[in-house]
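Hi V.,

You were right to ask for the full record rather than a summary. Here it is.
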Amino acid sequence: MTPQRFLGVLLLIGGVVLLVVGMNASHSMADQVSNTFTGRFTDHTTWYIIGGIVAGSAGLFMLLFGPRGTNA
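Predicted structure:
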């Protein structure tokens, strides 16, 4: 496995973890109250979700379009 593919796997896993943490945080009492009064989630929850999407997308991109072949 090339270093770029290994980094892609790590980014994909990290992105999924961040996304799950952000989704779980969006169901907390503080976020529900914030969403009720302001119409949006807290900043921390929003950054977890955005970071998860970006990291997961970058990892998936690196896995799908990374270098082909084997290292010599």
